[in-house]
Amino acid sequence: MIKNYLKTAWRNLLHNKVTSVISTAGLAIGIGCFLLLSVYLLNELSYDRFNVNADRIVRLVHHFKSASDNNEKIYAVTPTAPVPVFKQVFSQIADGVRVYDYSNSRQATVQYGDKLFHEHNMLVADDSFFKIFSFKFIYGDASTALSQVASIVLTEATAKKYFGDENPVGKILRIDKANNVMVTGVIENVPDDSQIKFDIMGNYAMLDRSKTRKWDSANDYSYLLLKPGADIKNTELQINAYADHMVADAKSDHSWYELEPLTRVHLFSQADDNLEPSGNVKNIYILSFIAVILLLLACVNFLNLVTARSIERSREIGVRKVMGAVRGQLFVQFITEAAIITFIALIAGTLLAFISFPWFSDLTGHSLTLQTWSPGLLALFLFGLFVLVTLIAGTYPSLYLSAFNPIKSLKGKSGTGSGVLRKSLVVFQFAISVFFIICTIIAGRQMAYIRTADTGINRSEVMVLDIGGMPFTKIKAFRDAVMQQQGIKNVSATYDSPVNVKGGYDINGADGKPGKLDIMVTGVPVERNFVNTLGIQLIAGSDFTRGDEQRVLDTSFAARVYSFILNQSAVNALGWKPEEAIGKRINLNGRMGEIRGVARDFNFASLHTGITPIVLFPEYDYFGKLLIKTSGVNVVNTMDQLEKNWKAFYPDAPFEAHFLDEEYNKLYLDEQMEGNILTVFSMLTIFISCLGLFGLVYFSTKQRIREISIRKVLGAGVANITGLISWDFLKLVMLSVIIASPVAYYAMYKWLQNFAYRITIPWWVFALAGIIALAIAFITISYQSVKAALANPVKSLRSE
Predict the structure, then answer these.
(1) Are 118 and 87 members of one domain?
(2) Weakest mean pLDDT among 21-25, 228-232, 720-724
């Protein structure tokens, strides 16, 4: 019996090639896209779950709320004291580890023999790191890998870069020309789904900060391993109570700690200074919606095409029923046809996904393969997908076809209701397509706005060099040499990159302000040419001078007299107007000095957040980045000459430079990915919808061939007939535009709320989306319409 069902179903599919190909192609594309997006979503949701103790590891983050403006900030970094102190005080804490981003704060130059590299991804951590986190060792032992101060662990790729295929354990590397460290272990490359990523892991004890237990100067990422059964919220309450009553300078009414479960850090953390850019749980919702919609559209195509063929198959069904076939047998026959198409589409879709993974990995910025699933889980998933799609796509058509009245069927009538359903499904398909078109246009306009928005800083043609740890005397000599070079306009140094500023400071006092102030600001130690180099506009006062530089350059911290440049937001927070702020004295975390200038508000961070109070001040103890403003002419020659100067001053350090606007664009990788995915999958939704529309027009013209022929005999032209057929479908597309527009408006309005600076949604976006949808639909319809209109009416009527 089953063999007969399969044979009959296969013959029917071969007999109706157009339906079969369109249905299979649509389903294959839908399934392939669903698989791609499912792998990405699974990767995002599985972050850090490879750790054996993932459910017991928490990250300590610090909340601050400004007393002046009630503005809350969340920092992922903490001081040196919490981890060792909390381990001692709280019995429910089994262990803890501090992680410090070594290469973010200095020029991590690593040398072995004649091999010299800048390492941009070097961390240092307490010796408990590999006991808490589950990284797989190729060489060495996790329990002892960081037991010595001068020990270091490499990833497999890094070890190969320095040592080739040999076992590097016991070999000596030289870091920053000062520290000799021994390789004590090699681990497999850090999994892509880890939010702690590194190429080199050193011992935290190599830092001077490891010898202190401070409750200020936050620079560490702190993780705690809780004992089994320990309650996170209860532990958090105890920690804050301890910090409040026992460590007065660690907590106040405006400061508290939070314990973030490790598995929630990637998607749910609100901190903006994570070890790596966080994911966004909203992206998970968006991409899940897209995955389901694409699969649903493909199923709708199948459903629509099968019901459209109902008139063609009505006589077949009538004959079967007259010959004794019962409804159950017919249902099995039709569901078997759906299962065969689904099976073929599943194989084709899986192959399509497999071929597309390299491209999709580039699109998302993640290394994705079907190996994200175990073979057993993948097989179970594909089987479940097969059953789901078969039921969604095949159940209604099978029930609908098997329910035909045999007498009406033999007369060529298929019953009622299917026409309304088909029209509703066409409207649904194109409403989804129009929705994605609108979203794509608006997202593209927002990203264009971000790229061109005036943030108060001129980032164009500014090169950035990593100079972390170099003495200022040497930096000054290099700067002076570079200034003699053609194509160089200005040079300045800064503690942080201007798009990655992490300096959290407080204005503790100011002239005419009684009592102790608590105004949180972003503080940036800079060299005096900083304002000119980045084109920051002063609206009051003046720029830093050589005198400002000299007063802090060779003076002890306690004796220094500082000069400050504040942005408008900082001056407003102090309650002053720009002109009256000039000459006023402030206290910035113990740095006493006067305000020299007030700058027009500028933004270091992404446009997701509003402009915050910022204070610039000359301080020469440490600079991390050198900013070089070029003329933009003969960039290659300028870069070559700059490299020659670099090698003359720093022969033992590799030359690496990048442009500041490239770094700024990386702040919006998530949004760029969203935009790219929206664009690609908008095109796919349109394509799937057009496949279905093409099939419907094909059946419609076949069913109306007698009507079309009679109209032609009576004098109707090609344009009249094409318009007649097209209008029936184009009005459905117009209805879909009306339905989709308000939904898309609401969705994109909510999405734009993620940006402090955003575009308004113009009316013409909806008109443009409607025109695009109508044009695509008309092109799809016109081929079959014109073909039917050009057919010989005599031949058509004779065959009828």
Answers:
(1) yes
(2) 720-724
Tell me which H or E stretch contains 782.
helix 764-790
**pLDDT band with cut points at 50, 70 and 90 for residue 397:** low
Residue 200 lies in a domain: yes
Residues 348 and 482 in one domain: no
How far is residue 663's CA from residue 679's CA, in Å, rounded to a whole number?
24
Assess contact for 297 and 688: CB atoms under 8 A. Answer: yes
CA dihedral 289, 291, 297, 298 (to 10 degrees): -170
Burial (CB count within 10 angstroms: exposed 0-12, middle 13-18, buried 19+), residue 285: exposed
Q: Residue type at 91?
A: S
Helices 327-364 & 310-322 angle (0-180, nearest 10): 150
Q: What SS3 state is found at 582?
A: coil
- Cα–Cα distance measured from residue 379 to residue 578, given in angstroms and rounded to the nearest whole number: 67
Tell whether 321 and 359 lie within a shared domain: yes
Q: Are 593 and 437 in contact (CB under 8 A)?
A: no
Specify the length of the chain in residues: 800
Question: 533: domain range?
Answer: 462-631
Q: At what angle do helices 718-752 and 669-703 cross, to 10 degrees?
A: 150
pLDDT band, residue 597 (cuts 50/70/90): very high
d(CA 270, CA 502): 15
Question: Does 457 fall in a domain?
Answer: no
Contacts of 241 (CB under 8 A, 6+ apart): none
According to DSSP, the β-strands at 657-659 and 462-466 are: antiparallel
Q: Which pLDDT score is estimated for 633?
A: 78
pLDDT tens for residues 353-373? 888 888 888 887 777 777 767
The reply to whether 340 and 432 lie within a common domain is no
- Residue 296: how many CB atoms within 10 A of its CB? 18
Do 305 and 411 fall within a single domain?
Answer: yes
Mean pLDDT on 591-611: 83
Dihedral angle, C-alpha 113, 116, 117, 122, nearest 10 °:
40
Report how far residue 206's alpha carbon sits from residue 499's, in angstroms, rounded to the nearest whole number. 28
- Cα 263 from chain centre: 17
- pLDDT of 250: 45
Residue range 222-236: mean pLDDT, rounded: 92
As a whole number, mean pLDDT of residues 401-409 equals 55
> Rounded to the nearest 5°, which phi and psi values hold at 400?
-65, -50
Same domain, 407 and 516: no
Asked if 599 contacts 539 with a C-beta cutoff of 8 angstroms, the reply is yes
Alpha carbons 387 and 400: distance in angstroms, whole number: 19
Separation of alpha carbons 501 and 339, rounded Å: 57
Greater confidence (84 vs 408) lies with: 84
Other CB atoms within 10 A of residue 563 CB = 23
Given a cut of 70, is residue 150 above it in pLDDT? yes
Three-state secondary structure call for residue 23? helix
Name residue 224's beta-bridge partners: 58, 96
| Mean pLDDT computed over every residue of the chain | 80
Neighbour tally for 148: CB within 10 Å: 14
What distance in Å separates the CA atoms of residue 462 and residue 440, rounded to the nearest whole number?
31
| Measured torsion, CA atoms of residues 431, 433, 435, 437, in degrees rounded to the nearest 10 | -140
| Burial profile 720-736: b = 16 or more Cβ within 10 angstroms, e = fewer | ebbbbbbebbbebbbbb
> CA–CA separation, 537 vs 560, rounded Å?
27
Instruction: Say if residue 495 is in the same domain as residue 397.
Output: no
- Say how many domains are in the chain: 4
Is 469 a member of any domain? yes
Residue 539 near residue 632 (C-beta atoms within 8 A): no
pLDDT digits (tens, 9 = 90+) for 39-82: 888 888 888 999 999 999 999 998 877 655 566 778 888 888 89
Regarding whether 622 and 500 lie in a shared domain, the answer is yes
Tokens representing 249 are 């300078």
Among positive and negative, which fits the CA dihedral 74, 79, 84, 88?
negative
Question: Are β-strands 591-599 and 562-567 bridged in parallel, bridged antiparallel, or unpaired?
Answer: parallel
